[in-house]
Design a protein that fits this description.
By secondary structure, the chain is of the alpha+beta class. It is built from one helix and four strands. It has a four-stranded antiparallel beta sheet with strand order 1-2-3-4, covered by helices on one side.
Length: 82
């Protein structure tokens, strides 16, 4: 396993977080995912390229625009067992 830095911007300054990159060799590719962020996965021809692609995938996951909910939609808190 390898650790990668996550980045984001807040008020123009970058913030960083440490995540766990789990990866394997799949044929000609390094294939990996961030364990702490479900849905963030990618591949690269090299481990460095995988790290760059994981950063891009993370950025897309946390910054993507979401369409507004229909006017009739309701919200309420929900407690989940962890």
């Amino acid at each position: 396993m390898s650790k990668v830095d996550g980045r984001g911007t807040a008020g123009g300054s970058a913030t960083r977080g440490l995540f766990t990159l789990e990866f394997r060799r799949g044929g000609e590719w390094f294939v990996g995912r961030l364990l702490e962020v479900p849905g963030v996965s990618s591949r690269g021809a090299t481990l460095d390229e995988l790290r760059e692609n994981i950063q891009d995938a993370y950025d897309l996951m946390v910054t993507q625009e979401r369409s507004p909910a229909p006017a009739a939609a309701q919200r309420q808190p929900v407690e989940l067992v962890l």
